[in-house]
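Example 3.2
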Amino acid sequence: MDSWTEQRIKLGKQLKQARQSAKMKQDQAARFLKVPVSTISAIETGKRKVEVVELFQLAALYQKPVAWFASEKVSSWGLENIQDPVVRDAVVQLLQASKPLQKRAAFGLIGFLSER
């Protein structure tokens, strides 16, 4: 199993833990994201990747900061110097995005920051 698969499985477990901690069922999360329950199940088992937007939405739904879901690698990126937690979470997501998505994520982050 490669490290990306391991990270996806770990993130899925964290999302499941956060959902259960929020005392929510998969169908509630699915309705919130407007996806089938099978999608939430696939995300939580690591069979499906989580889109950045979905992670932000689920973090908000479960009342967790996005950084709560970040891997240990994030702590080595020097993000502690970013004071604004919302910006820090957005940068974490940008850094964790796959290479093809990073450009779009960067433009999204720039747009988000320009509205703040």
